[in-house]
Every structure is written in structure tokens, then in C-alpha cells.
TrEMBL record:
Organism lineage: Bacteria, Pseudomonadati, Pseudomonadota, Gammaproteobacteria, Vibrionales
InterPro entries: Mn/Fe_SOD, Mn/Fe_SOD_BS, Mn/Fe_SOD_C, Mn/Fe_SOD_N, Mn/Fe_SOD_N_sf, SOD_C_sf
Ranges of residues in domain Manganese/iron superoxide dismutase N-terminal: 2-85
Function comment: Destroys radicals which are normally produced within the cells and which are toxic to biological systems.
Molecular-function GO terms, alphabetical: superoxide dismutase activity; transition metal ion binding
Enzyme class, broadest EC rank: oxidoreductase
Recorded family membership: Belongs to the iron/manganese superoxide dismutase family.
Name the UniProt record assigns to this protein: Superoxide dismutase
Catalyses which reaction(s): 2 superoxide + 2 H(+) = H2O2 + O2
Keywords: Metal-binding, Oxidoreductase
Provenance organism: Vibrio sinaloensis DSM 21326
Domain Manganese/iron superoxide dismutase C-terminal: 92-195
This enzyme's EC code(s): 1.15.1.1
Gene Ontology CC: one annotated term: cytoplasm
Amino acid sequence: MSHTFPDLPYAYDALEPYIDAKTMEVHYSKHHRTYFDKFIAAIKGSELENTQLTEIFANISQHSPAIRNNGGGYYNHVLYWNCMSPNGGGAPSGDLNEAIINTFGSFDEFQQLFTDAAINTFGSGFAWLVVNNGELKIASTSNQDNPLMDVAGVQGEPILALDVWEHAYYISYQNRRPDYIEAWWNVVDWNTVSENYAAALAQGR
């Protein structure tokens, strides 16, 4: 395999008014692209050029900070983009909804716990919903770490990602991270998250 930079799955303005077009353009074409380019430069000429990201992350403590930070930034943003849609919002259905209720008591309780994890992530980072041994867990990581990495406090297969770096929201929301998170729930693509959940279970995660 080789590592590629995927297209954004929708137009820059597709998530307005919740996430503005300028933020999307800068975030995707500048920040995300830079992480990808620096990751490719960091692994150039090594066996990691043809190693799956999941394998790299599983042993990330053995690799350089450049691989950890930029590889994480490359992967984390792909999941973040794919978990949003102009037709998003609402709540999940089917098996994922049942799992959320069984784990957290209700969707509203899950939403509050996830929101709290995102708000309380100190500095820059991500909030996650992961599958670990078939169970759902909420996690947060600093910088561009993720739950696939062997350095993560909570490990598992990420099925939902929320970027809480300031560059993800500052143009519209300035320092009001809670307002950005509240708006973000309106674009969560639960169909994709449900597909991610089913795939994680099928892989025995």
C-alpha cells in the first residue's frame, strides 16, 4: 500500500452555518495537507512507506516525534472529515444507538459526556468514541495522538472524532470551544459512525 491524501468528501461550504467555508478551506488544504506532507517526508525511504497506519500507530512509541505528530494529524483529520456531513445531526439508530444506550444510559447522557471530554481537553487535541473489546468508550488525546497509538491512555478503534484544536473553530467561534462543539453535533454523520462501529465489531476490535 501507499499513503495518499484523500479528497474532502464535500464542498468547503457544505457544513455552513455550523462550520464556515474559510475554516474548512484552511483546515483541510493547509493544516491537514501539511501533516500529510511532513508524514510522507518523515517515512521516506523506510519500510513505513508501505506499512499500514494502524501498524505504525501500534508501535508509535518506537518512532520519531515527526512520525507520531504528523502521522496522527494525517489520520485524525481523515476520520474527522468523514464523520461529518451536510445531512448530519440528530441521533444514531440501529445497533449503534442500542450500544450507546446500553453503555451510557441514553443518547443525551452520551452526548453530554462526549461534550465534556471535548471541552475539558486541555490545549489542543481530539475527543473520540472508540470500540474497545466490543465496548464503547469515550476518550480524549492531546495534540495529534489517537486511541490507536500504544501511548494512548484509552485505546481502541476510533469510530467518531472531534477536532478541538483552535484552528478547527477560531474563525467563527474565537475562544468559544463549547459553542463550536454544540454546533458540531448538527453535522455528525451517524450513518458513517454506524458503519465504523459495525466494521470495528467485524474486525474483533
